[in-house]
C-alpha cells in the first residue's frame, strides 16, 4: 500500500499547488486543505502501514502484541490535523475579512499593503 | 431556517453527544478517544445546536464564553504540568494516585495526565466553538 | 538661591532642580548602585594578593553544554585590573550621580541603566568563554545606547545614541563571526584554553579573517580611526555617563579585547602595522581636533580618543616596555580622565556652561574642585611626580624600541603628549586661575558627594606617582603577564630613570606643550578654519545611512511585488529546485521500486480521493468544490481506519465535518469562484506536477528503505508499565510528549483569539 499512497500524496500535492497558484483566494484555501491532508498522509506513510492492528495494549498484558501499527506518526498526525484546522480557519476568516474590506478575492487586485507603483 | 424537528432533535443530540464526548475523553487513555477527539465531538454537538437554534441559543446553553472555556482549559493543562514540581519531578511528568488499589487491581486511577487531557478537551472545545460562533455571527 | 537651572547636553534638555542645601540625594535610586559597586570593589580587592602571586581564579557553570557554551569567569591580572577600575570608578561615579541627578524625574531609570552597564562590563572583562564574552559585549553596547539617549526628547541625543549603537553593533556582529571562526579553529570557546595553545590562531589559514573581524570589533568599540566619529557625539549623555562609559570603561572594551587576544593573535606583521597605523592616526588626529574645541567636554572626548589611539599603538608591539606602558597609561588615563570629566560636570552643574571662553577665575570660590582639576590636569600633562609622567616616560621608552618605525611612533607620541599637556592646562588650570577673562561671580562649591570622586581619583594619580611600587607589584606586573602570556616581562615603574632619551623627549614635550597652551586661542582659530574645509566623518555617516535606506527601498520594490501569486510561486519553485535538484544531483532515485500488493478496498479508497481532488480542481461551483474536499477528507479518514489508526480517523472525520460547516457559513459571505484563464496557467501546472512527482518519488524511495523504530519500541514497551495507559497514541500525546501537546493546544487557542479579533475589528472605509 505504501507505493500506491506515495503516488496518491503526489497527486494531492500537485492539485494543492495548482489550486494555491490560482487567482482566487477561495481556490487558494482549497489548496491549503489539500496540502495539509497530503502532509498528514505523508507523515503517516513514512511510519509504514500495518492493517488491522491498532497500537493498543490488550487487557492483562504489559506490552502490545508482536506487530502493531506505529503509534508515533499517529500521535504526530493527530495533533497536526487539529492544528491544520486552526490554520485553515484562520486563513478562511482572513479571506472573509479581506473580502469585506476590499470587495474582491482576486489576489491580483488585493494590494492594499503594497500598492502598484504608479506610472 | 427554523425547523421544529431539527430544534427538538438537536436538543437531544447535543446532550447525547456531550455525554459521549466525555465518555470518549475518559476512556481515551486505554482505548481510542482522548481530549482531542472528545473536544471535537462536543464541539460538533454544539455546532449542530447552533445551526438549529442560532448561535444565541447555543451560547445560552453553553453558559460560558467559548474563549473563556478554552483559556481555562489551557490553565488546566499548564497546572497538570506544574503539578510534577510538587513531587520534585521534571516538568510534565505524570503523577498518579490509585484509589483502593490492591496488588491485583489498580483501583480508580486519578492522574495529572487526566487533568492534562481534560485541559486539551476544553481548549479544543472552546476554540472550535469560538471560531464557528464568530463566523456565524459575522455580519 | 531657590532654584538653579541644571543643564545637561544642550539647552533643549533642561530641567529645574532645587540646589538648595541638602536636597534629598540619599534616595534608594541614588544609593543602592553605590553600595553594589562598592561591595564588588571590596570583593575584587580581596583577590589582589592571590593574583599578584601569579595564579588566577576561574569559575565555571555549564550553560548549553552540548554547544560548548559555559558561563565561565576568569580572574587574572588583566581582568582584575579592569574589574577594579570598573567597580572603583563606578562607585565614585554613582555617588556623584546620586547628587548630580538628585530630583531628576527619571533618576531611577538612570541608576538602573548605569548599574546594568557596570555589571555587563564586569562580565565582559571576566568572561572566560568567548560566547558569554560576546553576550556581555552586546549588553554594554545596548546599555550605552540607552544612556547616550537618556535625554530622549532631544533629537541630537537620539541620533548620537543610534549612531553609537549602529557603529558598535557592526563591531559586535564582527566579534560574533570572529568568535565562531576561533571556535572552529581552536575547537574550544574557552579563552584560557585558547591562550594555552600558542600559535593555534596565528598559524591557521583563517588567521587573517579572524584578525580582521576581531580588530573591526575592537576598533569600533574603542573608536579608532575611521570609526572614531561616534565617540564625541556620545557626549550627548549626562556627564557622569561620559566620565564612566565613554572615557574610563566601555571604550576600553576594545582595548581589553586586543589585550586579551594579544598573546594569541599578535606577533605578525599585519597585527603590528594595522595597530600601529590606526593607533597613530587616531592619536594625532584626535589631539589636534581636541585643541579646536571650546566645549570642555568635547575637548576631553577628543583626548579620550587620543588615549585610545595611544593604547592601540602600544599594544601593536610585544616588547615589555610597550605593554607596561600600555597598562600604566590605561590606569592613569582612567584616573585623570574620569576626574576631569567629573570636574567638568561640576562646572556645568554649578555654572550652567562648559565653554572655555566663559569659565574664568573659579579657583577661589570652588577650591576643592580646583584642587581636583589641577591634580588631574598635572597628571594628564605628564608632569612629575604624577603617575602620568611615569606613563609618558614608559611610552617613550616603549616607542623607542618598537619593531615598526621608532621615529614614526615616537614622533606621534611627542605630538600627542604636547597637545595633551596643553589640554590638561586648558581643562585643569584655565577655568580656575587664568586671568584671561572676567571672573564668574556668585558660583558656589558643589556638595561633597560630587567632590569625592574627582578628588580621590586625582589624588590616586599623584599618590601612585610617588609610590609606584604598590601599583607595580599588585596590578601592573600581573596584567602585563596576562597580556603577554608569560610572567617576568614587565618593566619597573620609576619616577627617575636617569638621563636618557625618554627624559629628553619629556622636556621637549613640556616646551612644545607650554607653547601650544600659551597660543591656544589663535591656534584654535586656525584649526577651525582648516576644519571647515575638510570633509567630516559625521556627514559621511549621514550619507552612508541614506544610501543604505535607498538600497533597502530599491530591494523592496524589486522583491516585494505585492502579488500573492508571485510570492507563492517563488516559494514553490525554490522548493521544487531544492527537492528535484538534490534528487538528481545525489542520484537518489532508483527505479523501479518494489511494489507491495494492493487490495480492492485500497484501490477504491485511492479512486475516491482522486475523484475528490479532481472535482475540487476543475469545478467552478463553490458547493461542488467543498463537496470534493469532503470526499478527499473522508477518503483519507478511511485510509486511517483501514491501517489501524482509529484515533486519527475519528479526529479526521470530525475535523472534516467542521471544515465543511465553516466553509458553508463562509461561502455565504464570499463571492463566486469565477473562471481562471486556463491558457495562462501552464507554468502553474508544470510546477504543480513537478512538485507532485518529486514528493511521490521521495516517499517511494524513503518507504522502500528500512525504518528506525527505536522510538516507537520505547513507547510500546513503556506505555503501560510506566505510564499506565493502554492506548499508546494517547499516552504519547498526554504523557510522553505532553509539552509538545501543550504548545499545540496553545496554538489552537491563539488561532481562536486571532479569529475573534479579526472579525470584531471594524472594517475601515478608506481601505476599499
Structure description:
The complex is a heterotrimer of chains A (119), B (139) and C (768). Chain A has one domain (2-50, 68-102): Helix Hairpins (Orthogonal Bundle), CATH 1.10.287. With 119 residues, chain A is mostly helical. Chain A has 3 helices and no strands. By secondary structure, chain B is mainly α. Chain B contains 4 helices and 2 strands; from the N terminus they run αααββα. The longest helix of chain B is centred in the middle third of the chain and has 28 residues, at 35-62. The two termini of chain B are 17 Å apart. Helix content of chain C is 71%, strand content 3%. Chain C has 31 helices and 4 strands. Chain C has helices at 28-52, 77-100, 107-126, 130-148, 155-186, 191-195, 207-221, 230-233, 239-248, 252-260, 262-265, 269-292, 296-315, 320-351, 367-381, 387-400, 406-428, 430-433, 448-466, 468-484, 501-518, 520-533, 537-559, 564-585, 600-618, 622-642, 646-667, 682-704, 710-723, 728-736, 738-760, and strands at residues 4-7, 14-17, 57-64, 69-75. In chain C, the strands form 2 sheets. Chain C has a two-stranded antiparallel ribbon. In chain C, helix 12 packs across helix 22 (520-533) and helix 14 packs antiparallel against helix 19. The radius of gyration of chain C is 35 Å and the shape is elongated. The chains are: A mainly alpha (119), B mainly alpha (139), C mainly alpha (768). Chains A and C meet through helix 1, helix 2 and helix 3 of A and helix 24, helix 25, helix 26, helix 27 and helix 28 of C.
Amino acid at each position: 500500500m505504501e507505493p500506491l499512497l506515495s503516488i496518491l500524496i503526489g497527486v494531492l500535492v500537485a492539485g494543492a499547488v495548482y489550486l494555491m497558484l490560482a487567482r482566487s483566494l477561495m481556490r487558494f484555501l482549497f489548496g491549503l486543505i489539500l496540502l495539509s491532508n497530503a502532509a498528514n498522509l505523508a507523515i503517516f506513510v513514512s511510519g509504514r502501514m500495518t492493517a488491522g492492528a491498532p497500537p493498543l495494549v490488550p487487557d492483562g498484558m504489559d506490552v502490545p502484541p508482536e506487530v502493531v501499527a506505529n503509534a508515533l506518526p499517529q500521535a504526530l498526525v493527530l495533533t497536526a490535523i487539529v492544528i491544520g484546522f486552526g490554520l485553515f480557519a484562520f486563513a478562511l476568516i482572513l479571506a472573509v475579512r479581506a473580502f469585506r474590506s476590499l470587495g474582491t478575492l482576486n489576489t491580483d487586485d488585493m494590494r492594499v499593503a503594497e500598492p502598484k507603483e504608479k506610472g | 431556517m427554523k425547523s421544529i424537528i431539527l430544534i427538538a432533535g438537536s436538543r437531544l443530540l447535543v446532550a447525547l453527544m456531550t455525554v459521549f464526548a466525555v465518555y470518549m475523553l475518559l476512556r481515551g487513555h486505554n482505548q481510542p478517544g482522548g481530549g482531542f477527539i472528545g473536544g471535537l465531538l462536543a464541539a460538533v454537538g454544539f455546532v449542530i445546536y447552533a445551526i438549529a437554534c442560532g448561535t444565541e441559543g447555543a451560547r445560552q446553553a453553553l453558559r460560558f464564553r467559548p474563549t473563556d472555556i478554552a483559556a481555562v482549559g489551557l490553565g488546566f493543562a499548564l497546572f497538570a504540568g506544574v503539578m510534577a514540581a510538587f513531587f520534585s519531578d521534571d516538568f510534565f511528568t505524570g503523577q498518579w494516585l490509585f484509589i483502593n488499589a490492591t496488588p491485583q487491581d489498580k483501583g480508580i486511577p486519578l492522574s495529572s495526565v487526566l487533568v492534562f487531557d481534560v485541559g486539551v478537551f476544553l481548549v479544543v472545545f472552546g476554540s472550535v466553538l469560538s471560531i464557528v460562533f464568530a463566523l456565524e455571527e459575522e455580519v | 538661591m531657590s532654584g538653579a537651572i541644571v543643564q545637561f547636553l544642550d539647552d533643549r534638555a533642561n530641567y529645574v532642580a532645587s540646589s538648595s542645601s541638602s536636597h534629598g540625594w540619599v534616595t534608594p535610586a541614588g544609593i543602592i548602585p553605590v553600595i553594589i559597586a562598592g561591595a564588588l570593589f571590596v570583593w575584587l580587592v580581596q583577590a589582589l594578593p592571590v593574583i599578584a602571586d601569579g595564579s588566577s581564579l576561574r569559575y565555571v557553570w555549564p550553560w548549553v553544554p552540548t554547544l560548548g557554551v559555559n558561563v565561565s569567569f576568569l580572574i587574572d591580572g588583566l581582568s582584575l585590573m579592569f574589574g577594579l577600575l570598573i567597580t572603583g570608578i563606578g562607585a565614585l561615579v554613582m555617588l556623584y550621580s546620586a547628587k548630580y541627578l538628585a530630583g531628576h524625574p527619571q533618576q531611577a531609570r538612570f541608576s538602573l541603566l548605569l548599574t546594568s552597564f557596570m555589571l555587563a562590563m564586569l562580565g565582559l572583562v571576566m568572561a572566560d568563554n568567548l560566547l558569554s564574552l560576546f553576550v556581555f559585549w552586546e549588553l554594554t553596547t545596548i546599555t550605552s545606547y540607552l544612556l547616550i539617549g537618556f535625554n530622549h526628547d532631544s533629537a541630537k541625543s537620539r541620533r548620537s545614541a543610534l549612531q553609537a549603537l549602529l557603529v558598535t553593533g557592526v563591531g559586535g556582529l564582527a566579534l560574533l563571526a570572529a568568535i565562531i571562526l576561533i571556535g572552529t579553529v581552536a575547537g574550544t570557546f574557552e579563552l584560557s584554553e585558547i591562550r594555552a595553545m600558542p600559535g593555534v590562531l596565528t598559524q591557521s589559514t583563517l588567521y587573517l579573517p579572524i584578525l580582521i573581524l576581531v580588530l573591526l570589533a575592537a576598533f569600533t568599540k574603542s573608536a579608532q580611526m575611521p570609526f572614531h566619529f561616534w565617540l564625541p557625539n556620545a557626549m550627548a549623555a549626562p556627564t557622569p555617563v561620559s566620565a564612566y562609559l565613554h572615557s574610563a570603561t566601555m571604550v576600553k572594551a576594545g582595548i581589553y579585547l586586543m589585550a586579551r587576544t594579544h598573546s594569541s593573535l599578535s606577533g605578525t606583521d599585519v597585527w603590528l602595522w594595522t595597530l600601529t597605523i590606526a593607533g597613530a592616526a587616531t592619536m594625532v588626529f584626535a589631539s589636534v581636533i581636541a585643541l579646536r574645541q571650546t566645549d570642555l567636554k568635547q575637548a576631553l572626548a577628543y583626548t579620550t580618543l587620543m588615549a585610545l589611539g595611544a593604547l592601540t599603538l602600544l599594544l601593536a608591539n610585544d616588547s615589555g616596555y610597550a605593554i607596561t606602558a600600555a597598562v600604566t597609561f590605561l590606569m592613569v588615563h582612567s584616573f585623570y580622565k574620569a576626574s576631569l570629566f567629573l570636574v567638568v560636570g561640576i562646572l556645568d552643574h554649578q555654572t550652567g556652561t562648559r565653554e572655555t571662553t566663559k569659565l574664568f577665575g573659579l579657583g577661589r570660590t570652588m577650591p576643592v574642585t580646583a584642587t581636583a582639576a589641577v591634580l588631574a590636569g598635572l597628571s594628564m600633562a605628564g608632569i612629575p611626580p604624577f603617575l602620568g609622567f611615569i606613563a609618558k616616560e614608559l611610552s617613550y621608552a616603549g616607542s623607542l624600541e618598537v619593531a615598526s618605525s621608532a621615529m614614526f611612533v615616537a614622533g606621534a607620541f611627542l605630538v600627542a603628549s604636547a597637545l595633551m599637556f596643553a589640554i590638561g592646562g586648558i581643562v585643569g588650570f584655565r577655568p580656575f586661575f587664568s586671568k584671561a577673562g572676567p571672573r564668574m561671580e556668585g558660583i558656589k562649591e558643589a556638595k561633597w558627594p560630587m567632590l569625592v570622586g574627582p578628588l580621590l581619583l586625582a589624588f590616586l594619580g599623584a599618590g601612585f606617582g610617588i609610590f609606584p611600587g604598590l601599583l607595580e607589584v599588585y596590578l601592573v606586573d600581573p596584567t602585563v603577564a596576562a597580556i603577554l602570556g608569560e610572567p617576568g616581562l614587565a618593566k619597573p615603574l620609576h619616577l627617575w630613570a636617569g638621563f636618557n632619551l625618554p627624559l629628553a623627549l619629556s622636556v621637549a614635550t613640556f616646551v612644545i606643550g607650554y607653547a601650544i597652551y600659551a597660543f591656544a586661542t589663535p591656534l584654535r582659530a586656525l584649526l577651525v578654519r582648516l576644519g571647515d574645509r575638510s570633509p567630516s566623518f559625521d556627514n559621511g555617516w549621514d550619507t552612508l545611512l541614506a544610501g543604505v535606506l535607498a538600497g533597502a527601498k530599491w530591494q523592496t520594490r524589486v522583491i516585494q511585488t505585492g502579488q500573492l501569486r508571485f510570492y507563492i510561486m517563488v516559494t514553490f519553485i525554490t522548493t521544487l529546485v531544492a527537492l528535484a535538484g538534490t534528487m538528481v544531483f545525489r542520484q537518489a532515485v532508483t527505479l523501479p521500486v518494489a511494489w507491495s500488493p494492493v487490495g480492492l478496498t485500497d484501490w477504491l479508497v485511492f479512486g475516491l480521493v482522486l475523484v475528490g481532488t479532481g472535482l475540487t480542481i476543475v469545478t467552478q461551483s463553490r458547493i461542488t468544490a467543498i463537496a470534493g474536499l469532503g470526499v478527499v477528507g473522508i477518503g483519507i479518514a478511511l485510509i486511517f481506519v483501514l491501517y489501524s489508526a482509529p484515533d486519527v480517523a475519528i479526529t479526521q472525520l470530525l475535523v472534516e465535518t467542521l471544515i465543511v460547516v465553516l466553509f458553508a457559513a463562509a461561502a455565504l459571505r464570499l463571492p463566486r469562484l469565477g473562471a481562471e484563464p486556463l491558457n495562462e496557467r501552464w507554468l502553474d501546472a508544470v510546477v504543480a506536477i513537478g512538485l507532485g512527482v518529486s514528493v511521490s518519488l521521495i516517499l517511494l524511495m524513503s518507504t522502500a528503505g528500512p525504518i528506525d523504530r527505536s522510538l516507537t519500541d520505547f513507547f510500546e514497551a513503556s506505555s503501560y508499565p510506566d505510564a499506565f495507559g493502554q492506548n499508546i497514541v494517547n499516552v504519547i500525546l498526554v504523557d510522553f510528549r505532553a509539552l509538545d501537546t501543550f504548545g499545540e493546544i496553545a496554538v489552537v487557542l491563539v488561532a481562536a483569539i486571532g479569529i475573534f479579533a479579526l472579525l470584531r475589528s471594524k472594517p475601515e472605509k478608506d481601505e476599499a
